[in-house]
């Protein structure tokens, strides 16, 4: 499938890299189809690119890269819409933001993907254990991993 992006132009995306968010993501409730694009060969950071709006894309990563004990405290009924019965079948991502010279991660709004059917849901965690701007790394360190400011 061909997807137009503002950062990379038109790109070919393997159908296996498509993710459906039936309820959209925060701020974009009508955008339900995204492609997961690798930023580098290391596979630590990805672009979550809308397939219908080239300007809508988010940098995401696995939160356990920075918070090894991170867990999504969720109830099974929260995942019935995406067909997820057990968190062991899930891939969890967080949205990364650039704040001055640092990268932060939204640990309070994880993206939970059912790895079997590639359907996903963004949660808003009610407990205050996690922040929406959890410090991850200084930007000069991040550039060593991948170019996140494209």
Report mean pLDDT, rounded to a whole number.
89
Radius of gyration based on Cα positions = 15 Å
> Got a strand count?
11
Q: How many H/I helices? A: 1
Strand content: 35-45%
- Unreliable spans: none
CATH topology: BH3618-like
The level 1 CATH classification is: Mainly Beta
Per CATH, the superfamily is BH3618-like
Shape: globular
Descriptors:
BH3618-like, single chain, globular, mainly beta, two-stranded antiparallel sheet, nine-stranded antiparallel sheet, 150 residues
Description:
It is a single chain. This protein is mainly beta. It has a single domain (2-145), classed as BH3618-like (Roll), CATH 2.30.290.10. It has one helix and eleven strands. It has one helix at 139-145, and strands at residues 2-5, 9-12, 18-20, 33-38, 45-50, 57-61, 90-99, 102-105, 111-114, 119-122, 134-138. A hairpin with a 6-residue loop joins strand 4 (33-38) and strand 5. It is globular, with a radius of gyration of 15 Å.
What's the quick description here?
By secondary structure, this protein is mainly beta.
Outline the secondary-structure elements.
Layout lengths: L1 E4 L3 E4 L5 E3 L12 E6 L6 E6 L6 E5 L28 E10 L2 E4 L5 E4 L4 E4 L11 E5 H7 L5
